[in-house]
Fold this sequence. Notes:
- The protein is α/β, with parallel strands linked by helices.
- It folds into two domains: 23-154 and 186-213 and 273-282, Vaccinia Virus protein VP39 (Rossmann fold); 163-181 and 217-271, no CATH class.
- The protein has ten helices and seven strands.
- Strands 3-2-1-4-5-7-6 form a seven-stranded mixed sheet.
- Helix 4 (83-90) links the parallel strand 2 and strand 3.
- Helix 1 (23-32) packs antiparallel against helix 9.
Amino acid sequence: MPSCFDKTPDAGLLGDTPMRDYARKLGLFMRFAEPEIRAAxxxxxxxxxxxxxxxxxxxxxxLPWLAEAVIPGGRVIGMxxxxxxxxAARLQASRQVELVAGxxxxxxxxxxxxxxxWSSNTLHHFPDPLATLHRMAGWLRPGGRLAIGQxxxxxxxxxxxxxxxxxxxxxxVRNHYxxxxxxxxxxxxxxxxxxxxxxxxxxVDVRARTFAxxxxxxxDRATHDYLLExxxxxxxGERLRSWMSAExxxxxxxLCDPTNSAFALDRxxxxxxxxxxxxxxxxx
Length: 284
């Protein structure tokens, strides 16, 4: 373990440990949402020479996007709890990128040493989000910005032609996560309070902007692969059976099966919407 971490973490709120590996799913999402994530990064006004931390960098797709905005003279640090994710990130890291594996809450970093902290789909993994924000804010220089990105403030639109089935699927997924991790709906959706959390952490000039990730048929390859592998096969599937009626589960299986004539991604009326919200604040 790198010396900048002083202890081995317990399992995170959503079961994260250094051994957990979902790099494939992370990569699928980042390739799918690249235009919108890049647009969110562009709002941070990064400049050459800046020092940036990607807190919870996952498989590292955002690292080159951040690095290209701070060259020449800048530096990007990517950190993630998962050893496998850091290993995947190293495959695409440039000379301007430094990678460390470990728990953010055990990371030691000089106070006031960063210009920007970017953290995407990470804050909800921590049992105490406010304490996590306080810790990260301490690493910012005066005037530095902390940016928290989060998918899914609003429910996805998956099956535009069948809102009732879509609602049943969303409820089943929430019930599955509730039982798997012991979390109720309030805890699973607590990230919607990020504006208030950043203000409680002492940040000023708090801003929020939501990007609609919207795709229609015919789908590009990145969207097709993300929805099929990360959603239909990884998030849905047999695990939802006990939370749905037999009729609804059968309908869902037909929609998620590429060999079925009802396959959702082949429909000419397929219309998908997901949101990505960036909330940022400045250190006084």
